[in-house]
Each structure stands twice: as C-alpha cells, then as structure tokens.
Amino acid sequence: MKVAVQVTCINDAMFPDTGKAVFTLLRRLGVQADFPAAQTCCAQPMVNTGYLDEAVPVVRNFVDAFAGYDAIVTPSGSCAGSVRHQHSIVARRSGDDRLAAAVAETSPKVYELTEFLVDVLGVTDVGAYFPHRVTYHPTCHSLRMLGVGDRPLRLLREVRGLDLVELPAADECCGFGGTFAVKNAETSTAMGADKARHVLDTGAEVLVAGDNSCLLHIGGLLSRQRTGVRVMHLAEVLAGTEEA
Amino acid sequence: MSATFVGMPAFPAAAREALSDTQLRRNLAHATGTIRAKRAAVVGEVDEWEELRMAGAAIKDNTLRHLDEHLLRLEKSLTDRGATVHWARDAAEACEIVASIAKQHAVDEVVKVKSMATQEIGLNEALATQGITAWETDLAELIVQLGDDLPSHILVPAIHRNRAEIREIFRDKMAAAGRPAPDDLSDRPAELAGAARLHLREKFLRARMAVSGANFAVAETGTLVVVESEGNGRMCLTLPEVLVSVVGIEKIVPTWSDLDVFLQLLPRSSTGERMNPYTSTWSGATEGQEAHVVLLDNGRTRALADEVGRQALRCIRCSACLNVCPVYERTGGHAYGSVYPGPIGAILNPLLRGTGVDDQVDSLPYASSLCGACFEACPVRIDIPEVLVHLRSKVVDAHRSAPKAEAVAMKSASWVLADSKRLGLAERGMGLAGRLLGRFGRKVMPGGRRALGRLPWPGSLWSNARDVPAPPAESFRAWWRREGRR
Ligand code: SF4
Questions:
Q1: How far is C-alpha B223 from the geometric centre of its chain's CA atoms?
Q2: Is A231 in contact with A209 (CB distance < 8 Å)?
Q3: 3-state DSSP assignment of residue B358
Q4: Nearest CA to ligand 1 atom 8
Q5: Of B257, B367, B383, B396, which is least packed with CB atoms within 10 Å of its CB?
C-alpha cells in the first residue's frame, strides 16, 4: 500500500512537530509513508469563507500532489472532512471535468489519522507511553463531519502511563471555526472561555485533540489565562515512547 | 408596539453587545440547557428516529419538487370546503389582505395565535397603522408584546427573560392593554400564568376576528393544522366569527399519512414532549365562521430556486437547532436581526431576502463556527453547515466587483497555496518574522513555546484574548528537506 501523509498547511507552517510525530508513529507501526513535497493545503480556509474560485487552484494542487497513492493520512479531522465533503463542490464550480474526476479518485482515499490507525491498520495499542493526566476534546469536524466516534479514545486508553479524565460538555464547539475566530472574535472567545473552564475543571495537565487549529485557539486562551495547562496534538501523544 | 428589527447592526456588532449582558447569557444558558436535555431524552426513546428524520426530509423534498401542483390542490380542497383562498407575493400584499378582511367586518381588534409567518410579514405593525390592534395570546408572545420587546426564539420568544423580569412587565404594562395584573402578583410561574389567563380571557370572549398561521396544510383535504401547548390557540380558532390563516407556501403536506411523520418529529424536537398538548385541525369554514387562507410567498420561491439552499424550506420551525447552537446560546436571538434567529435564521433570512443587498443579512451566513450541532439535531435533516458555506460563497460572489481587504487576502493566500515552492518561501518569511516578533513577546506558553506579543490589526482580532505561539524556526517541509528524506 502506497501511503502519503497530508501534513496540512497549518501543521507545516506552525506545528511541524505534529507532522514529525505522524511519521515517527507510522514508521513504528511498519508503514513507510511519503511526504509528497508538492502538497500545500486542502483549501478549506477559502471554501469555508466563501471564496470558491480561489479554492480551485489549491484543490487542483492537492489532487496533483496526492495522485497515485492508495491512502492519504492526515492529522486533522477538519482537513479530512473538507477533502471528503468540499472538494467535489469546488471541482463542480471550476467546470473542469478532469479536475472533478481527479477529486472523485483522490477524496475517498483520505483518512483522518485515527481512522487510518484503527480501521486500516487495525490497531488501538500503538505502543505509546505518556505519563500524564490528559483530557480529550473531540473537535467538531472529526466528531460530526467525519464521525470518528470513539477511535481517538480507544487509542488513548491504550497509552501506558496515561491517566485519561473525561471532559465535561466535550462535544460542544470550542469556538474556533476558522475565520469565525476573527470575524466574530468576541463570540468565538466566549465559547472558548467556556471550553477552557471545562478543561480546568478536569484537573488535567494536558489537553489533547486531533486538530491543531482548535488547539491553537483553546491553547491561546489557556495560555493567556496563565493556567499552566498545555495543549498537544493526539499524534504527538501517540508517538511518545518510554525510550524517547 | 414599536420595537422592530429594522436597522439592526450586522451580526458581529449585535453579538458583541449581547455578550456583555451577563443576565441574558445566564437566562439563555439555563433555558436552552433545560430544553436540550428534555429533547435528547425523548428523542433517545425512539429507536427509528433516524428513519423518521429521513422520511420527514423525503416527504418535504418530494412536495417541494411539485409545489405548484400541491398548492393548486390545496386551494381547490379549501375552496370546496367553503374557505376563501388568497395569494400573497410579499409581506405588504399579505398584510393588506388581512387588513381589508378586518375592515369588511368592521373590527378594530383581532386575537392572534402564535405564528411565525405573521411575524415575518410584520402583520401586527401593519394592522396598527390601519387602526387595528392585534393581541398576541401565546404566553411568551404576550410577554414580548407587553414589554415592547422583540422575539428572540422561534418557540419561546421571551426566552431571554426570567421570571422576575416577566413579573415587572405584567405589573407595569397589563393595565394599559386590558385587565391589569393583580397587585400582589409574585414571580411564581403558576401565578404569572394565572394573571395572563385572566387578562387574555377577556380578549378571547370579545374578539370577532382571529389570525393564525399553520404548522401544516394538508393538500388532499384542505386541512390546516396548529399544534400548541397552552390552549390559547384553540380559543382563537373556535370562538371568533372570522378566522384568517397566513400560511407559508412551504407548509404543505400532500396527505394525512404524511402528517403522521411530522406530528412525531415536531413535539419531540421542539418542546421535548412525546406529544404536544393541543393539536387543532380544521378543513375550510365551519358553521358560523368565515375562513380565509392567505398563501404566502415572500421569498419562498426565491429560496426554492436555490438548489443547495432549498432544503431550508423543509424546516418545520421546531427550534431544535437554536437550542443546540453554541453561538445562539451566547448571543441570544436579537443579534440575528430577524424573527428567525439561530442556525435556521442564519440561512433562511439570506435565502428569503437574497444575498448582496444588505450587510446585516450578508453577515448571517458567517454567524456560525460550522460545528454541525444544528444538522445533527434537525428533525428534517437540513444540512445547515452546507447551506451556510454555500451562502457564504454567494455573499462573496455578490461583492466581487468591489473587493474588500479580505478578498485580496484570500486571493494572495490562494496564489501562495497553489504552489508548494511559494508556500515554502512564505514559511521561511514567517520563520524570520516570528523570530523577530518573538523578541517582543517574552511570554513562554505551557509546553515551552515562546508566544508572540500582541499583534496589530487584523491580528489583534485574534491576539486580544488569545496568545499566539511564535512560528517555528523551521517549517515541516524545510525539516524534511534538510533531513534529506525527499
Ligand atoms: S432547521 Fe431543523 S432544527 Fe431548525 S427549526 Fe427548522 S426543522 Fe427545526
């Protein structure tokens, strides 16, 4: 199976450790994955803000970069959701039949990381070690757009040393929402403040989620409030071992 | 009654004001939290809920596909049973029809059954300009009307008010509108309801004309259906000599067996009850009563023409999407500037009124984090997030001739993101800028990463409340290349 990793633009530019963790993890599980260097972004920032014409060249770049792979793994529920649900809309808008065909070919091969681990590789124990008290926030797009269900929790429960505590009102949106975070900044932070409060209520040292964009928002609030709670991508937790 | 949504600021500004009202937020969080829990419990009892949702969506879709035929059938059934059918293209026409019926019967007051359609067309205000007073008889509508306030929820228009506030409104305002509130009125719900009951009884017994909407209109028999909880509706529907019903053209269901599906979906989704206390149905005119039905378009055919947006016409106004919406929960309904607030309002208003003409309406598709809770709750499976994104693209397209700063930013982002080499360069620039900016921000975030200082506009929109980690010195792709892993 030819596997590629879609690192995502925000991970590439802001959270390179998450991309590195995905490769560490996959290698440990025996998967030799590529980083197609022509990749950039899934075009979600444009699509969700309403700029469909601007999304077309980005989607085109996506299908070109990932052509020929059997599976494309991404550490982002949001980007996986965007590829699966929005690329066809963008292709239709472009009026380019070849692009539409390429999208139909590529989109179904995109897996969010936990889907790939649990459904394709069939593992929940990835041999990780992380001796901390952790709470998990299911991001909206992984929860509702993709329906990853309890896969992330099943993976976390197998991590040695990890003390998993339940997050109150976990399925409520953190308020990030892409450009919503700036277009409706006050409402966004009001939602995030409630999420941060719930995180503090758990007494966890680390908040884990499968989307760095949501963590950027919640982590930014937790840091501004000087709570001392750290945010981490799920991939980085799963990549940790006793040796490293 | 002078309160009006006209001239409301765009959503972000209206929301900002609402967010600073802590009493409002407490009232809303409490009310939506309670109803959310009730809904979840009764929906959980129904094993085939998902099948019911699909059936509801399918019936509505099929009906909308042949709406013209169903409407003609409805008109015929109604006329055969002695009702008079009127067609209204817009709000002004509909209001004029109702006013002229009132004038024909020389009435200067009407009682009203809670109805979204009549609020949408501003009927009470239009009647007032013609010297006709319209009395709301639903408890929550009465509170809004007496308080000279605006509705903030589809089902519970006074959801933003608590008991103490309601007591004040009753004590201050009831006397001018009819029977005054008792002097010793407390804020116990039973006493408040009792005061409203006595106040309204006088009006039910006096009124010669009533105005209603309809939750459903069954084409095969010309039957209008109103579901309610308080029984005030039944009083209005049966006592007066003249009954005028204003019905949106999307309220149609072809047959009684179709109705069956919705009478299961609606109460569980709206009030969290297995069944609503009162269901009234009437077909045409009954003895001693004159019946009129105003079939209202007011933008519905415009919505129907939108192939992604038309699913919004399936809406049965249950309000489940409002109660689960995290944005609505914090901003309340007034921020949406319309009688249709919350997720459904964010799509319905632009669909009915069109995009690109009004900044307030254009702001609504952006009043969502796209979390998807509304879609999950909607009993007729309206994919609200999908429609929101679609409407955003319509808003953007409507403004393409005069691009805003945002459009310029999106164009450049698109240019950078269409090519990995350009992105690589941009990331290198970010790394440099980050190292520079990082010097100003001394703060270290939990986990050891340095934070940037506060950013200038538009970055301030983010950094006012949230720390921003400094960009890493090396992007992922730069690391990958350096490691020679290509
Ligand atoms: S959109 Fe769906 S959930 Fe919202 S009011 Fe309409 S039917 Fe109810």
A1: 25
A2: yes
A3: coil
A4: B318
A5: B257
What is the amino acid identity at position B55? A
Please give the full DSSP string across A87-136, using - where no structure is assigned. HHHHHHHHT-HHHHHHHHHHGGGEEEHHHIIIIIS--S----B--SEEEE
* Beta strand ranges found along B102-168 (DSSP E): 109-112, 133-136
Chain B residue nearest residue A34, CA to CA = B486
Q: pTM here?
A: 0.96
The pLDDT of residue B114 is 95
How far away, in angstroms, is B321 Cα from ligand 1 center?
5
* A104-138 pLDDT, tens digit each: 999 999 999 999 999 999 999 999 999 999 999 99
Q: Do A45 and B486 touch (CB under 8 A)?
A: no
Q: Distance from A108 to chain B by nearest Cα, in Å?
A: 19
Q: Classify residue B171 by burial, with Cβ atoms within 10 Å: 0-12, 13-18, 19+.
A: middle
Q: What is the ipTM of this complex?
A: 0.96
Chain B neighbors of A183, CB-CB under 8 A: 12, 366
Give the DSSP letter string of B190-235: HHHHHHHHHHHHHHHHH-SEEEE--SEEETTTTEEEEEESSSHHHH
Structural tokens at position B98? 């109702």
Whether B388 is in the pocket of ligand 1, judged by its Cβ within 6 Å, is no
Respond yes or no on whether the N-terminal peptide bond of residue B458 is cis (omega within 30° of 0). yes
| B2 has a pLDDT exceeding 70 | no
Rounded to whole angstroms, the Cα distance separating B351 from B300 reads 8
Residue having the nearest C-alpha atom to atom 3 of ligand 1: B378
- Residues B373/B41, Cβ–Cβ less than 8 Å: no
* Two structure tokens written together for B33: 């939290």
Confidence (pLDDT) at B1: 44
**From B120, B322, B344, B381, mutation site for ligand 1 pocket: most ligand atoms within 8 A of C-beta:** B344
Distance from CA of A66 to the nearest CA of B (A): 13
What distance in Å separates the CA atoms of residue A208 and residue A234, rounded to the nearest whole number?
A: 6
The pLDDT, as a whole number, for residue A244 is 63
**Distance from residue B275's CA to the centre of ligand 1 (Å):** 17
CA of B344 to the centre of ligand 1 (A): 6
**Residue pair B155/B21 in contact by the 8 Å Cβ criterion:** no
CB contact under 8 Å between B466 and A221, yes or no, is yes
